[in-house]
Amino acid sequence: MAEKRKMKNEASSSNTKSDDSVVVDVGRRRSSCGYCKSSSNTSITHGLWAHSLTVYDYQALLDRGWRRSGCFLYKPEMEKTCCPSYTIRMKAADFVPSKEQVRVSKRMQRFLDGSLNVKKPDQQIDTSIDSNHISNNDSVSSAQPETDQVINYLSDQIDSGLLACIERGEFPSDIQLPKASVKHVAPTKRKLQAEGPQDLLYSSNISFQIAAALRRANKTDFTHKDPKFIAEVLSSHIVNMTSAIGLLVKPCNGHINFYSTETQTQTDAMSGRPAISKESSSSDSGKVQIKRRSLEIRLKRSTFDPEEYALYRKYQIKVHNDTPDHVTESSYKRFLIDSPLIFVPSSGDNTVPPCGFGSFHQQYLIDGKLVAVGVIDILPKCLSSKYLFWDPDFAFLSLGKYSALQEINWVKESQSHCPTLQYYYLGYYIHSCNKMRYKAAYRPSELLCPLRYQWVSFDIAKRLLDKKSYVVLSDFATLQHEAASLPNLIEDQIENENESFPDESNDMPIDADEEMSEVAFEDSDDESGPETTSLTPAELRKDVSNIVIGLKGMHLKYKDLRQAFGSNERNYLETQLDKYVTVVGTDLSERMIYSIG
User: Fold this and answer.
1) Claim to verify: residue 420 and residue 554 sit in the same structural domain
2) How far from 392 is each of 161, 208, 274, 315, 321, CA to CA, in Å?
3) Where is the N-end aminoacyl transferase N-terminal domain (predicted)?
4) Which of 374, 421, 505, 566 is most buried by its number of CB atoms within 10 A?
């Protein structure tokens, strides 16, 4: 009988855990900061370890400034941490894409249509540039349209190379850099500027424009980069993308020059058309066929996938310069696979989307090849974007921006199945970190007030954050209704904010804290509380009597357990519970189970 009772209690405890949120409060944590790169432990957060978490409770935690890394939940102590992190969101139905975001969508479409080409690993790039067939025997009359196509192609490759440089930190991400222009060099003006028989066909002076933009922006870390250096860096990023169409790229005194690498016919030489090798032509017609590509987007539950892990390793090593031994399978699972969220299947009654609520991976496949994975949480009110990793060979497609646009569109489409699902959460916005400001380009957005947890228009919050890194935003919330009569408050906002950030460090909402596993957080000796008042600690404490305590498989309210503890234990536990209520709020503290063993 006793054994049966024990089994029943264990089953009851297990069932409760599968339906309820169970957390362990790990208290204040100090760590090094991935945003300002401080040498000391200046990042201060409060942490929870979640054994299980309902999607409704996690939604409520997000709306109080929390975020998760695997099963570890953390919230910045905004007044104390070095880089205050504000939760940022956007109502999907109100989204207005910027010019740059529209360009990203068009670039992807051109790539899929076959009019934008790139060399993929272990594959020969399609040598066709035009959307029509290109023949080696085309007449001189068709040379000009084809020359324009080549120029557009080369301009795109330089822009892609510039994006890759920005992602690697070689150029700043918080100023508007010029778009590349390429000019055809007329036969009468060509000079043999390279050894061998190569002829100069095209040239770009983009390096001079970039150097001038850096000087105007007074970027002290980058002003030493002269046009010659910039041309060399850009050329190194696009060399593989041009060789496949019969062109050789070389920097020359600050210019980026493109030379012929093939023996050309007289007609080709006159037109400036790159020669096309016979090996890449059709054997019976001598024409090159455009290859159209397919894009497939798959949404799957968060589970380990070897192909995803291989892509993650490649991304972390090449983009974030992690060492191979640092990117382990176990750390990957802790960071991006493990999730405390309790899956909620679709009920078919317009309260849950067809995919359900929970943690998901959104895969992007081009011609069946996995090129990007978005790690997301789908919750009752939002899609919360957690991380994105992508194939560095496809950096020219700006997959971070593209995936964000797809996720926003997914929210719009899902509202017919789940009307409450209206928002797109981009993680944390850190105004003091230039690499994180790209999130403000998804407009119109709002930031969460760190004290009263009200949402405040970004247009208002920006001017406040320009002056001070930590601001109680809701103090100024009334300005939202007066914004129309305060033109100086949002001057130059609409396009400047959208265009100021050509690309982002990790493209899609990534937090530096998220790159660390929970073990990177160290205990802090600084347990200083609020400013001293005339009230005693006991008088300052909140009511903790209704908090549900998880102890040895039992779940009881603290008021029913209080007498089971000695005086010292009771005093210590109530101090901890008081801090817990402060960071999660009264409603959540009485809804989630506070586990102590």
Assistant:
1) no
2) 12, 27, 27, 6, 12
3) 31-101
4) 374
Distance CA 430, CA 174 (A): 13
200 and 124 within one domain = yes
The string of pLDDT tens digits covering residues 79-126 is 999 999 999 999 999 999 999 999 999 999 999 998 875 544 443 333
Neighbouring residues of 565: CB distance < 8 A, sequence distance ≥ 6: 573
Determine the Cα–Cα distance for residues 363 and 371; give it in Å rounded to an integer: 8
Q: How far is CA 423 from the centre of its chain?
A: 16
Determine whether 15 is exposed, middle or buried from the number of CB atoms within 10 Å of its CB (0-12, 13-18, 19+).
exposed
Residues 448 and 554 in one domain: no
CA–CA distance, 152 with 159 (Å, rounded to integer): 11
Domain final position from 510, 532, 567: 510
Pair (158, 206) in one structural domain: yes
Pairing mode, strands 423-429 and 382-390:
parallel
pTM of the prediction? 0.67
Q: What are phi and psi of 138, to 5 degrees?
A: -60, 150
Which run of H or of E encompasses 130? none
Angstrom distance (rounded) from CA 501 to CA 100: 9
CA distance 147 to 399: 28
C-alpha span between 340 and 302 (Å, rounded): 11
Shared-domain flag, residues 92 and 55: no
Q: Indicate the pLDDT class of residue 15, thresholds 50, 70 and 90.
A: very low
Measured torsion, CA atoms of residues 130, 133, 136, 137, in degrees rounded to the nearest 10 = -120
Distance, in Å, from the CA atom of 394 to the CA atom of 12, rounded to the nearest integer, reads 50
Of 288, 318, 349, the domain-final residue: 288
Residue 359, classed as helix, strand or coil, is strand
Residues in CB range of 405: below 8 A, 6 or more apart:
97, 101, 104, 105
